[in-house]
Amino acid sequence: MIFESHAHYDDDAFDEDRESLLSSMKENGVETIVNVSASKKSLEKVKELMKSYPFIYGAFGLHPDEVGDMTDRLLEEIRLLCRQEKALAVGEIGLDYYWDKEHHSLQKKWFDAQAQLAREEKLPIIVHSREAAADTLDMVKGFRGGEIGGVIHCFSYAKEMAREYLNMGFYLGIGGVVTFKNAKKLKEVVEYAPLSSLLLETDCPYLAPVPYRGKRNNSIYLKYVAETIAQIKNVSYEEVVDTTRQNARKMFRLRD
Ligand code: NI
């Protein structure tokens, strides 16, 4: 069954039907969901979701667009959230120069601090990096990210950059974008990277795959992502689902 490694069911986009949608995951082949926090507001919501659904796990951290809200005190609150039994990672954390909402120096300060927290708490990191390829790589190398481990979520860079992260033992998060016709660069990355280094993720409510492009995304649509990866790598659909599930369980340190 499908392991969804990156979702945001705390988002307002799911307010209308969150419960019925989440209750239908099992029957649609989705076994496990990691709900990732992004904003200060989302931290408590993710904690609640994790408590309410046995198959939902959590990741705790502030997204680079949201680090204006970060303080030393909030960082310690995040540390406590990370010590809950079902907290599997620190995230999503990183650099975003596309929306560029916070000064680069502030984004870097809290990316580094949250990565250190992950190291101390022995959790992997979920890295968000958008139009910040060089700085992200510099920082991940700088804080010896390979020792911490984790995933470059919604991987959007070229093959050469993928190689750098694969060499450090990172996983690459692959979502709906791989089904887009114009996603030549990402298809090349998927062809190049070993299946043992890929994770399935939606980033829902965003980035729905074809044939739902532009609509609200959800984890059930991961089957289209898995089908596309299977075609690109010339393996079966089942192999993609099984291997990415094993990868996720290994990265998030879940025992069978
Ligand atoms: Ni996300």
Structure, explained:
The model has no long low-confidence stretch (mean pLDDT 97). It is built from ten helices and eight strands. Helix 9 packs across helix 10 (237-251). It has a single domain (2-251), classed as Alpha-Beta Barrel (TIM Barrel), CATH 3.20.20.140. Helices cover 42% and strands 18% of the residues. Strand 7, helix 8 and strand 8 form a beta-alpha-beta unit. The chain is globular. It is α/β, with parallel strands linked by helices and 256 residues long.
Please supply descriptive tags for the structure shown above.
18% strand; 10 helices; 8-stranded parallel sheet; 256 residues; TIM Barrel; single chain; binds nickel (II) ion; 8 strands; alpha/beta
- Estimate the strand proportion: 15-25%
Q: Write out the distinct hetero groups bound to the structure.
A: nickel (II) ion
- Alpha-beta content class: alpha/beta
Query: Quaternary arrangement of the chains shown?
Result: single chain
CATH topology: TIM Barrel
How far apart the termini lie comes to: 13 Å
Total individual domains: 1
Biggest beta sheet summary: 8 strands, parallel
